[in-house]
Amino acid sequence: MPLTLSLLLDEVKEAAESLPFINQLFIDYIWQEDNQSFLLEEVKYDAIWLETQMTRCLAYWKGERQCRGVDIEDAWKCHSCDYQESCQWIVQKTKELQLAREKI
């Protein structure tokens, strides 16, 4: 049986369910130039938020929803996106910007 994305997701979910619960989680920010930690931030576990995010993301990967563009504040990420040339979000935002400029 060939490995499909659906089977892979099932395997990942099964593996994740067997992991122990972690009650403390930290993000360690490390400076790229010298690999020194400059901030250690504790992250509070929020089961509802995590479930919401996982459901939203998995719906995309399972083909149950269309992709969505980033928030306009995160549009800088588009410069490194492999799909920038064919992105409908960029086309729509460009049209909105042009219309806004015409109204000025």
Can you tell me about this structure?
- It is a single chain.
- The chain contains three helices and two strands, in the order αββαα.
- The model has no long low-confidence stretch (mean pLDDT 88).
- The protein has two domains: 1-66, no CATH class; 69-104, no CATH class.
- The protein has helices at residues 5-17, 47-61, 88-103, and strands spanning 25-30, 37-43.
- The protein is of the alpha+beta class.
What order do the helices and strands come in, and which of them pair?
Blueprint: H1 5-17, E1 25-30, E2 37-43, H2 47-61, H3 88-103
InterPro entries: EXOV
Pfam families: Exo5 (PF09810)
Family: Belongs to the EXO5 family.
Short characterization:
The chain has helices at residues 5-17, 47-61, 88-103; strands spanning 25-30, 37-43. It is α+β, with helices and mostly antiparallel strands and 104 residues long.
